[in-house]
Design a protein that fits this description.
Blueprint lengths: L1 H28 L4 E2 L3 E7 L7 E5 L7 E7 L2 E9 L3 E5 L3 E2 L5 E8 L16 E9 L8 H14 L6 E8 L8 E2 L6 E8 L8 E6 H9 L6 E9 L6 E12 L3
Parallel strand pairs: 10-12
Antiparallel strand pairs: 1-2, 2-15, 3-6, 4-5, 5-15, 6-14, 7-14, 8-13, 8-15, 9-10, 9-14, 11-12
């Protein structure tokens, strides 16, 4: 009997070690993009660095500033604008049908006094999140196609063929979708509006495919590019804004 008890103990230990090793192996090979709480995740960006991003300039306009920083004890993207404009663009495209949801958290220091979403000279926002789609000549009018090629000649790629633009609007208009005053191929959705919530964190979840269909009346192209922006070149004003994270995912 003592010999049998002695043989059982090493066997139990071996089983325990094997189980622990197997768990560690499974964890190590599990895809980073998978998360039970969110389904599949394309990107979960917390802005420890901007290695996955690049700045896109608008001709000779002074660029806005984008930097990874610590703010209130957490890594954030700091977006600063002073009579300036430029995009910060994610380097990799994604499929909006595979990853239709975006969750993000942002705050702004102020809105623009002269900001007005109905006017080209007021088309500035302290925080924007763009979902940009490629040019499709079969979907747009001759005039919009002309505008696209003019913008492409002036600013260079990427110039989106169409886009959904989630904004912190400067004024409360109660509009759910606002056509951009420069082009109807940019449809703006004011998730935040007015000065009442400045300097407070606001968190939003949106469905890109649903919002695109609502804004344009048809399905979006499958591939899209993410960009963020703080611009003030039309109003000549200044602001700071912060984004603590952006997650692109599905909820399957």
């Amino acid at each position: 009997m003592p010999e049998r008890r002695g043989s059982f103990f090493p066997y139990f230990v071996r089983c325990w070690v094997f189980a622990c090793s197997l768990c560690c192996l499974l964890l190590s090979v599990a895809p980073f993009e998978s998360n039970k709480a969110w389904g599949a995740v394309f990107i979960d960006e917390h802005f420890a660095s901007l290695a996955r991003w690049h700045v896109h300039l608008f001709g000779d306009k002074p660029p806005s500033s984008y930097s990874a920083t610590l703010h209130e004890g957490q890594s954030c993207l700091l977006m600063e604008s002073n009579n300036s404009a430029s995009f910060l663009v994610l380097n990799q495209e994604f499929n909006v049908y595979e990853y239709p949801k975006i969750l993000w958290r942002w705050k702004v220091s102020n809105v623009y006094r002269k900001g007005d979403s109905s006017r080209t000279d007021g088309d500035d926002y302290p925080a924007r999140l763009y979902i940009m789609f490629p040019y499709d000549p079969d979907r747009i009018s001759f005039m919009e196609s002309f505008k696209y090629h003019v913008a492409l000649a002036i600013y260079g790629p990427p110039v989106p063929g169409s886009s959904i633009n989630y904004i912190w609007d400067n004024r409360v208009t109660n509009a759910t979708i606002i056509p951009n005053p420069l082009t109807s191929q940019v449809q703006m959705i004011p998730v935040s509006a007015g000065p009442s919530l400045v300097n407070t964190w606001q968190t939003y979840t949106v469905d890109i495919v649903r919002d695109y269909r609502k804004a344009f009346g048809y399905d979006p192209p499958p591939l899209a590019t993410l960009a963020v922006m703080n611009d003030s070149d039309n109003t000549g004003e200044s602001s700071k804004s912060w984004i603590s994270f952006i997650r692109i995912f599905n909820s399957k």
